């Protein structure tokens, strides 16, 4: 099976390997610290800060960036922070290619596996059914919240309309199948109506009715299936989905809104709908 993040322009992946890289010895605990810096270094083992000058060459775990071919070693200078986890980025093409976990550096795809996101065990009640073999839940743990960050990074890399969402600062629902966390919905309340902010499903799982079923299940979970809801700044794909669930209808006179209202100031109406634009009155 192709990687579930195939085509992402931010996340990369690659084959694990090793490389010779610069290392120093921690003056506090004696452990090897991989760092090219001459100067202040923090030990990964004991968190002690010390001044490094005696660099030597040691075998270091690394990964080959699948996008540019560079071999990236897991050293301090290649680190960044995503949520509460350390990540490693390719210094050549700037993609994040691995995330540090208790089991060592892992590719971002690993961090979307259902077993990892749900802390290795499925709960007795995993959540609300979306459609056959797919369910949803609200993020309750650091790993679940981190899954929204991984998905949002993928979404933003492929569609600029997703830049407005900052994970952790609004409500969310996560969508799972037996193997992966495959999508999310963000939402808030606008006045007395729930407001759908963003919907993202990984490309590999589209075209199966999951997105429309996810929206219906989300609405039923926070209100009821017949409730009217708002949709903030929908893109073209969201307009198509709203039409597929009967929330809007496209006629010769324009768009008729049966179950939802459009909010915000940015709209991306599908080209095939021609000159139909929603009213925000």
TrEMBL record:
Pfam annotation, one family: Acetyltransf_1
Superkingdom of this protein's organism: Archaea
Entries under InterPro entries matching the protein: Acyl_CoA_acyltransferase (IPR016181), GNAT_dom (IPR000182)
SUPFAM superfamilies recorded: Acyl-CoA N-acyltransferases (Nat) (SSF55729)
GO function terms (MF aspect): acyltransferase activity, transferring groups other than amino-acyl groups
Domain named N-acetyltransferase: residues: 135-276
Protein name listed in UniProt: N-acetyltransferase domain-containing protein
Species of provenance: Haloarcula japonica (strain ATCC 49778 / DSM 6131 / JCM 7785 / NBRC 101032 / NCIMB 13157 / TR-1)
């Amino acid at each position: 099976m192709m990687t579930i993040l195939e085509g992402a322009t931010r996340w990369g992946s690659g084959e694990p390997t090793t490389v010779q890289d610069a290392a120093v010895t921690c003056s506090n605990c004696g452990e090897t610290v991989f760092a090219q810096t001459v100067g202040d270094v923090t030990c990964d083992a004991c968190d002690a800060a010390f001044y490094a000058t005696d660099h030597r060459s040691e075998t270091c775990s690394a990964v080959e960036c699948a996008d540019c071919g560079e071999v990236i070693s897991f050293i301090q200078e290649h680190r960044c922070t995503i949520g509460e986890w350390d990540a490693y980025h390719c210094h050549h093409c700037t993609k994040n290619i691995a995330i540090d976990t208790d089991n060592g550096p892992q590719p971002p795809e690993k961090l979307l596996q259902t077993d990892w996101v749900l802390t290795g065990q499925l709960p007795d009640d995993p959540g609300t059914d979306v459609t056959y073999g797919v369910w949803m839940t609200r993020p309750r743990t650091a790993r679940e919240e981190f899954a929204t960050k991984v998905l949002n990074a993928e979404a933003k890399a492929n569609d600029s309309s997703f830049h407005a969402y900052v994970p952790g600062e609004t409500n969310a629902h996560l969508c799972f199948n037996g193997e992966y966390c495959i999508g999310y919905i963000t939402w808030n309340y606008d006045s007395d109506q729930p407001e759908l902010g963003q919907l993202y499903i990984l490309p590999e799982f589209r075209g199966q009715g999951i997105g429309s079923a996810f929206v219906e299940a989300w609405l039923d979970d926070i209100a009821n299936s017949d409730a009217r809801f708002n949709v903030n700044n929908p893109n073209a794909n969201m307009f198509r989905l709203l039409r597929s669930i009967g929330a809007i209808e496209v006629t010769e006179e324009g768009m008729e809104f049966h179950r939802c209202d459009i909010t915000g100031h940015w709209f991306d109406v599908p080209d095939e709908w021609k000159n139909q634009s929603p009213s925000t009155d």
